[in-house]
Amino acid sequence: MASPIIVLIKLLFNPNVSNKMLLQMALNRVKAIGIGKIISALLGSLLVAVSSFIRVPQILKLTTKTTEDRISVAEGLSLEGLTLDTINSLIHVIFNYQHKIPFLNYGESLLLGIQNAIIILLTKYYRLHSIHKIGEHCGIKPEDQLDLAASDALKTVGVMIGAIVVFAKLVPSNILSYLEMASIPISIIAKLPQIRQNYRLKTAKHLSDIVLKANVVGASIRVYTSSVALNSNAKRNKNTRSDKILVAGYSVSLLMHSILLGQSIVYDKLKKKDKDVKGIEEKKEE
């Protein structure tokens, strides 16, 4: 049976159907589905679409400007946090897929996981630069430098593929449910290394402000969409265990992303304050 939206689109191009009739049908459909669920679906679609490129600003920080700038960004990122975050996304995607939850309710996790994997590879590559395993002055031939980088990248990709196979094919669904519940503490643990790194460096300039803000908005949307799904299933007396797990997980994710954004704002203000103080002192000396 065709989707109601597809039916409405077909009727839109039917010359025998008036606009008034189409509007009435659309309003009836909205009443039947519920405005909350429609807003939730639209926000979910928007989030999945935006998530296909939301980590690009962070990737650009690792691929533009000078090599020294790229190394500085790579050293500011937490590989442990990125890895845990990527594993968390993988578990979340497979859990939702196995429970036949619509892709629009979790699609961004898949897209963010892929982009995280790219960031991990770039971070590892530029950290190799920083410890002189790769570089112009380390005595390694250019072709050997490429081989070393490729070897390290292949190992990382191999681990990622292996993890996908294990979670998708070998881990039973009941264990995956426990792992999804564990995503709540994992979300906290995954963000702590980056929060600690920012605190140690007293800066978050290595992180993209756009990505930080988008993460908070995205997590907020997911709290809303998963809450709508929870309420809908509760009204129909369906099992809401998986929905409750998702709401809790997204709420924790929102909290951790908010802390990272807060660090960025606070450290940026402190940096500007220090510059202003230095400027005043220099003027006094003159």
Automatic annotation (TrEMBL):
Annotated compartments: Membrane
Key word DNA repair present: no
Membrane-protein topology: Multi-pass membrane protein
Xref: InterPro entries: MannP-dilichol_defect-1 (IPR016817), PQ-loop_rpt (IPR006603)
Keyword Membrane (UniProt): yes
UniProt xrefs under PANTHER family: MANNOSE-P-DOLICHOL UTILIZATION DEFECT 1 LEC35 -RELATED, MANNOSE-P-DOLICHOL UTILIZATION DEFECT 1 PROTEIN
Protein name in the entry: Solute carrier family 66 member 3
UniProt organism field: [Candida] subhashii
Organismal lineage: Eukaryota, Fungi, Dikarya, Ascomycota, Saccharomycotina
